[in-house]
Design brief:
Helices cover about 10% and strands about 25% of the residues. The protein is mainly beta. The termini are far apart.
């Protein structure tokens, strides 16, 4: 476990603030080799340590907001289309656990129900889960019920500082019709969690 780092304002004391990913015991040497093999198609980002000056965590008190009573991530300055905002850090893990390949082991996957788990390599089953540790990016909400469309997106990156693949948050590009104008100072940063996220939770509710 990395040493505790100075956290941004409004950071919950129960969550570890990260400046580098942590690794689950489910991650093998082969997984690390795959993650540390550069893919030239990925955007290469020189990531920085510590709180980002581009964003701020803000409690939400609007009764109409789906995350009312929780927090969201807001832009602290104007962000142009295509801008890299910050890295999504957490616990890098493999699901299912390769140490328990026998189905009869019946080992529960603690990440399968996490609301903060993003896929990093679907073929290898590698994900990054910010449930218990992460960066400000873990506070990004889905656009549904808040805005007509998302203004940001998750994209895989090559982390130059660590020499490893990772997940980043970007302002949506302008698009062919130039509809995306960036994110203005004070606006909430919103992504699409995807149909799979909401479909799984609908099934759980039923």
């Amino acid at each position: 476990m990395p040493p505790k780092q100075p956290a941004p304002k409004a950071w919950p004391s129960s969550i570890l603030y990260l400046t580098a990913p942590i690794y689950s015991p489910t991650i093998t040497k082969d997984h690390l080799t795959a993650l540390r093999t550069q893919d030239p198609t990925l955007p290469s980002i020189n990531t920085t340590k510590g709180p980002s000056n581009l964003v701020k965590i803000t409690p939400i008190s609007s009764p109409t907001h789906p995350a009312n009573g929780q927090s969201g991530l807001f832009a602290s300055m104007d962000l142009k289309p295509g801008t890299f905002i910050l890295q999504y850090l957490g616990e890098i893990h493999c699901s299912p656990d390769p140490r328990h390949s026998n189905p009869e082991d019946n080992i529960a996957d603690t990440h399968s129900t996490s609301n903060y788990d993003l896929s990093l390599d679907r073929e290898l089953g590698i994900g990054v889960d910010a449930d218990k540790a992460g960066t400000e990016a873990r506070f990004i909400n889905d656009y549904r019920g808040v805005a007509e469309r998302p203004n940001a997106e998750f994209k895989e990156i090559w982390d130059e500082r660590r020499g490893e693949r990772g997940m980043g948050v970007f302002v949506l590009p302008e698009g062919r019709k130039g509809k995306n104008k960036g994110i203005r100072k004070g606006e909430e940063i919103l992504v699409s969690y995807g149909r799979g996220f909401w479909g799984a939770r609908k099934d759980d509710g039923e």
